[in-house]
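Table S7 (text form). Paired inputs.
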Amino acid sequence: MSALDEAIAELEQAAARLRSEEIDPEEVAELAERCARLAAEVGAALERQAAAAADAPGEERLL
């Protein structure tokens, strides 16, 4: 499983927990912060992948 897949799985688990009726406000805040960090990490990973693909041999660079 890739790091991206792991982050997606963790985000899905957090979403399920946030939908739970028995969750205290402190845990909600912690999960929200964790989701924000994961989203930033996933975004950075996707940007790196896109940049690597753009630099691949045989690919033209757009102006």
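Next pair, protein 2 of 2.
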Amino acid sequence: MRLLVIGLYSMPADLLSMKDELPNIGRMMSNGIAGVLESCLAIA
């Protein structure tokens, strides 16, 4: 089993809709699983 995790933490979410202009990212998204991660802040 192989697993590759790529975190594009500072990448704006609107760039993910530009899969045609970013073919490598578009190919990874179409052949794998992609989603938006949400951060959570600890309550002090």
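The mean pLDDT is 75.
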